[in-house]
């Protein structure tokens, strides 16, 4: 007599709760164990998500609850299951050995680092409070972790910036008529990156927003708004602003804001193996978009821009020129680049650091004319 196959006794569907990772809302779902994938159906039968078994990842959860996500997915979608028989059925179908090993590997490194960080942070909180703590902790965060946090915040911040819900078209440079502009922009960015030699890669993109602004998120994501390119009268002016944003990235200013705003919950959330709950990501992304930096932080990014522009043979004063031009015409909204009353002081400091002397334009006139068309399509 053959013993019945354990799998045939287990259910092939059951109930769960699905969090899409983009909003705080949760959905009661029917979980279907398809041959290769786990499918989540809404009440109306539509498929909300479908995850291959070999990509499943377990996250820390209270006793008796299985909390699943997928590997390498910056969106924090989660599925929670309480039914022990359904949990057993999922375990039987996925590859628990690989899963356990992968998670253990990730946790080991994370726990060692965050145990040290959390201990240090508790001491620091006791002594000096959170802002200084953030300044002390931020330089200790490995770039790989900043990158992962950055990707999470980026997905959320991008959705917040894309107020007209343009989706993929939010980014300039992909339409056929914008390709030449994109090529010229990439050339300018390559020159800046070569000069900066940062220890992590940047992701610099132009987006369809009319404000003359730019913003840097953790993990090296830099958004240049179309309105800034409209206002720029030379490639060097644009480069000066982007170099200023690269200064924020190099100084990890937005990462510090993230640690400050998310605080200890962030550290302990990391320690427990889950980066954030969905609500914390939304709150943190909003804070990063709305923060204006102190005068000292802006001055340091300006000084970085001057040094970088000089290193690559550009005009280090061009940043001051464009700041002066846009200071009178700012829109409400994230004040990342401009702080009105301080603009004349900033420009004076930039000019003092930059000195005088002739420079050659970073892009020739044909490339600059092309770059101006990077948001012309769509
Ligand atoms: Zn700035």
Report on this model:
The chain has 378 residues and is an alpha+beta fold. It folds into two domains: 6-94, Pleckstrin-homology domain (PH domain)/Phosphotyrosine-binding domain (PTB) (PH-domain like, Roll), CATH 2.30.29.30; 143-371, no CATH class. The protein contains 14 helices and ten strands. The strands form two sheets. It has a seven-stranded antiparallel sheet with strand order 4-3-2-1-7-6-5. The termini are far apart. Mean pLDDT is 82; it is low at 1-7 and 330-336. The site of zinc ion (ZN) has 7 residues, from helix 8 and helix 11.
SS elements, strand count: 10
Alpha plus pi helix count: 14
Low-confidence stretches: 1-7, 330-336
Question: What class would the helix/strand composition place it in?
Answer: alpha+beta
**Number of domain units:** 2
Write the layout of secondary structure elements.
Layout lengths: L5 H4 L3 E7 L6 E8 L3 E5 L5 E6 L3 E4 L6 E5 L7 E4 L2 H10 L2 H32 L2 H8 L5 H19 L17 H18 L6 E5 L6 E4 L3 E5 H6 L3 H16 L2 H19 L6 H13 L4 H17 L6 H10 L15 H12 L10 H7 L7
Parallel strand pairs: 8-10
Antiparallel strand pairs: 1-2, 1-7, 2-3, 3-4, 5-6, 6-7, 9-10
Helix pairs in contact: 3-4, 3-9, 4-9, 5-10, 6-8, 6-14, 8-11, 8-12, 9-10, 11-13, 12-13
Zinc ion binds next to helix 8 and helix 11.
Short descriptors:
378 residues; 14 helices; globular; PH-domain like; 2 domains; 51% helix; three-stranded mixed β-sheet; disordered N terminus; single chain; seven-stranded antiparallel β-sheet; alpha+beta; binds zinc ion
Can I get a quick summary?
The chain has 378 residues and is an alpha+beta fold. 51% of the residues lie in helices and 14% in strands.
